[in-house]
Amino acid sequence: MDDLSRRHANVRAALERDGLDAALVCGSEYSGFEGAVTYLSGFTIVHRYAYVLLPLEGEPTIVFPSEARYVGEHGDSKIADQQFVDRPGEWLAARLRGKRVGVYGLDYAMTVRDFSALQDAAELMSWDQQFDLARAVKSEAELESVRDSVQINVDGFHAFREAYEPGRSAAEVMAPAEELFVERGCGRLTMNMVLVGAEFALARADTTLGAFCIPSLEIAGPGGHWVEVSRALGAPSAEVRRMLEAYEEYYIVAQDALRPGATAHDVHRAVSAGFTQRGYHLGHVTGHSIGMTMIEHPKIGEGVDTELAANMVFSMHPHAISADGRECLYMQDTWLVTETGGVPLAGLEMRLW
User: Fold this and answer.
1) pLDDT-wise least confident of 51-60, 117-126, 217-226, 276-285
2) Continuous segment of H or E residues that includes residue 38
3) Would you list the DSSP string of 75-129?
4) 265-304: string of b/e by CB count within 10 Å (b at 16+)?
5) How far apart (Å, rounded) are the C-alpha atoms in residues 290 and 335?
6) What is the pLDDT confidence band of residue 75, given thresholds at 50, 70 and 90?
7) Segment 300-346, tens digit of pLDDT
8) Residue of 131, 107, 69 whose CA lies nearest to 297
9) Which residues are within 8 A (CB) of 201 and not within 5 positions of it... i.e. 6 or more apart?
């Protein structure tokens, strides 16, 4: 069985379990929201949006809006049935009338006009978590793609690091990394920022970097798998050095906590303890599953009872914010769950560079 057939089989098993007739996966050109379509078809959206319809039985279809004939390299799709239609919702309504349909992207990615056409024709079920859990355990082929993305990200971090010096603009420093990402096949699949104070900001020419810099680097390599790897740079304050102590603890704890059978809640409690005990607020989520969509379920967070399994991949990035909200520390790693614990795939030392 090839990898795409394995993916279809996993999703169909989840459909059968949930008593559904079909999965409808929605994707848009918004960074990070195109990946579910890529996962089921091999096609990457570069313009507008697309749908993949995977029935419980029968052949899948990829559906494009005809007002933009080019929405990507259509030949990349491994789904033979490609439909270009004026109103995708009306076309889908005719195919799905009377069916129970699990929809990935119902709350975020489906267009209003298509929802209006579909809502009375079929029974639509928001199916984001179920779809993500069906694809959370990665195959060996997918892990090869993840590792390739990680290496590109690490090389991009070093390009950023070498360009960084206080007084340069964020755009100047990010440019060599972005150039490397494009040269190595990431295309449009990059979302890279810097932290200014405790908040994320685009790497603009009017943002001047100071003596301490926190990049946030998120990319997907040619295989389409998103990863996140970064380290803080420069001379930190005494408060941030104290945050680093909690980061060093998390990095050790996560190697034991990220193991099969542990819940996402268990992992969150274990890796966040060093931060909360020191009185820091946690801004962004502690971590989340990551794959062809930038953020997937399960999240590593309070009350999330999903159990981890071997070959799940997680982005971990505790976002420590000082009590006054003015300082923070945010460093990213992509971790693999193995039978013996978590493995950080980047191999970067957990330190301030």
Assistant:
1) 276-285
2) helix 35-41
3) GG---SEEEEES-HHHHHHHHHTT-EEEEETTTTTS-HHHHHHHTTTSEEEE-HH
4) bbbbbbbbebbeeeebebbebbbbbbbbbbbbbbbbbeeb
5) 10
6) confident
7) 999 999 999 999 999 999 999 988 888 899 999 999 999 999 999 99
8) 131
9) 170, 193, 194, 195, 207
Query: Which residue is listed with tokens 């039985």?
Result: 57
Judge whether 303 and 257 are in contact, CB under 8 Å: no
User: Positive or negative, the Cα torsion across 92, 95, 99, 103?
Assistant: negative
| pTM of the model as a whole | 0.93
- 3-state SS string over 238-276? HHHHHHHHHHHHHHHHHHHHCCCCCEHHHHHHHHHHHHH
178 membership: H or E segment, kind and range:
helix 170-183
Residue at 156: amino acid letter:
G
**Cα–Cα distance between 238 and 197 in angstroms, integer?**
15
Domains of the chain: 3-134 (3.40.350.10), 140-344 (3.90.230.10)
Amino acid at 70: Y
Q: CA–CA separation, 70 vs 169, rounded Å?
A: 36
SS3 187: coil
Which residue type sits at 29?
E
Residues near 119 by Cβ (< 8 Å), separated by ≥ 6? none
Sign of CA dihedral 23, 26, 32, 36: positive
Beta-ladder partners of 90: none
Residue from 65, 76, 67 nearest 28 by CA: 65
Q: Tell me how far apart the terminal alpha carbons of the chain are, to the nearest angstrom.
A: 44
